[in-house]
């Protein structure tokens, strides 16, 4: 389906499915919404400059429109045509998993080189030519094709993309062919959308159904065998000598991780700047993904010292006598992995700031709360994207299994909670600010505000140090 065939007399500058984002010269496509009928927003689209419409029904309008059986069925072809098929000029690497998607895709981009490989995910979209923010882990279809086109124009040959289960559920990635698909781990998450763990896993498996070649699998994950039937050419990484990439040994040090890997009967001793056992698995996933596409091990490991992931075990060090780390961990599995590493360090008290998201899986809240209080000397419970839910109710659910504990306080305002944690930290303590990483927003009842845990931590530490001078 081509736009110039549908509207031969229009000079079309863009395609939009969100009426609020329409610019003069755009065509507005009334695709199906999860909760709304986009036909209801035609007037707004026209006010914003839409010069044509694609609809599912007859409409009374001042601009030309084309009625089709289902706009959802043609939207992908419209974007492919408009952007001259950018997906065919790139090798797209998909990474799925409950935890570790951002770290693994960032590592892949770093190993290949950001001059050749773009990144799309929680931390925005970027390559050597630009770095920009996004609102979702995996983008809507219109943004996705626009960004792929930008990568092509920037000279990229590869794109490492986080692929969430919800993106497959809502068909945001329909029609995308992945060169390789990889998965980090699977734990109970997003059940507000998927309802059951089986449905959640099935959405994860869609990545492998849409992959052209290899499926990169974590043999150490409890759901490893549950995805095998969707994989064309499975390769594994893990702690078994039968794995394609065998993690033979490792030693986690305060400032690096030494790892011994075996691949194709060759042994490689490497050092990674990433800390924690979970990051050994993330790095192994990234390495095997790149190796499956023909990259050489020796070339990939030359870029190890360049690896840096915003908001993932991000240490904030301004010269204070205590540690401060910002991390995205927000699931039970993510917390288990993080605390396993933190508890191996020689620190005094563990002070943790954390909440749980509103309008998301409520069943994990008590599990998260129990993990939090059992692994923290002092926890500060606060808001974390509460949306329309009552914050105190969310915190009450987090405390359901630990009501008799006394090693916590509740400070609703996240800014105040972070300041409090920094203020009470003593020498050799560690402050953990969890759940949001380097995200730049909080979704509150009255709307979205700018908020960044990294910046908040930096400002709080600066304020304390100035006060102490």
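Q: What amino acid sequence fits the structure above?
A:
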């Amino acid at each position: 389906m081509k736009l110039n065939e549908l509207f031969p007399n229009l000079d079309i500058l863009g395609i939009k499915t969100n009426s609020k984002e329409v610019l003069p010269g755009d065509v507005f496509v009334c695709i199906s919404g999860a909760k709304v009928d986009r036909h209801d927003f035609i007037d707004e689209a026209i006010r914003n400059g839409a010069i044509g419409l694609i609809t599912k029904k007859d409409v009374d309008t001042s601009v030309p429109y084309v009625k089709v059986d289902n706009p959802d069925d043609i939207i992908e072809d419209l974007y492919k045509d408009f952007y001259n098929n950018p997906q065919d000029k790139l090798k797209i690497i998909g990474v799925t998993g409950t935890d570790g998607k951002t770290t693994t895709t960032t590592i892949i981009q770093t190993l290949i080189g950001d001059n050749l490989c773009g990144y799309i995910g929680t931390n925005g979209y970027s390559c050597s030519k630009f770095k920009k923010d996004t609102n979702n882990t995996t983008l809507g279809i219109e943004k996705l094709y626009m960004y792929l086109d930008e990568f092509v124009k920037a000279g990229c040959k590869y794109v490492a993309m986080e692929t969430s289960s919800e993106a497959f559920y809502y068909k945001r990635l329909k029609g995308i062919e992945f060169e390789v698909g990889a998965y980090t781990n699977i734990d109970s998450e997003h059940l507000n959308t998927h309802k059951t763990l089986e449905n959640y896993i099935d959405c994860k498996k869609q990545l492998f159904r849409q992959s052209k070649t290899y499926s990169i699998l974590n043999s150490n994950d409890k759901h490893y065998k549950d995805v095998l039937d969707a994989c064309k050419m499975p390769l594994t990484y893990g702690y078994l000598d039968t794995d394609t990439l065998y993690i033979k040994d490792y030693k986690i040090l305060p400032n690096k991780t030494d790892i011994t890997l075996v691949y194709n009967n060759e042994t490689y001793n490497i050092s990674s700047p990433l800390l924690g056992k979970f990051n050994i698995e993330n790095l192994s996933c990234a390495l095997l993904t790149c190796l499956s596409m023909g990259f050489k091990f020796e070339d990939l490991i030359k870029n190890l010292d360049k690896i840096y992931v915003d908001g993932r075990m991000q240490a904030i060090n301004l010269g204070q006598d205590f540690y401060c780390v910002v991390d995205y961990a927000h699931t039970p599995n993510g917390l288990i992995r993080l605390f396993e590493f933190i508890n191996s360090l020689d620190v005094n008290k563990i002070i943790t700031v954390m909440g749980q998201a509103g309008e998301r899986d409520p069943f994990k809240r008590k599990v998260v709360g129990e993990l939090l209080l059992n692994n923290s000397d002092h926890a500060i419970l606060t808001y974390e994207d509460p949306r329309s839910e009552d914050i105190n109710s969310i915190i009450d659910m987090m405390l359901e299994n630990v009501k008799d504990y006394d090693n916590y306080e509740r400070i609703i305002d996240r800014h105040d909670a972070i300041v409090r944690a920094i203020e009470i930290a003593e020498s050799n303590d560690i402050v953990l600010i969890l759940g949001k990483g380097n995200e730049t927003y909080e979704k509150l009842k009255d709307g979205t505000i700018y908020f960044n845990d990294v910046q908040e931590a930096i400002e709080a530490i600066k304020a304390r140090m100035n006060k102490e001078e």
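Q: And what stands out in the fold?
A: The first helix runs from residue 3 to 6.
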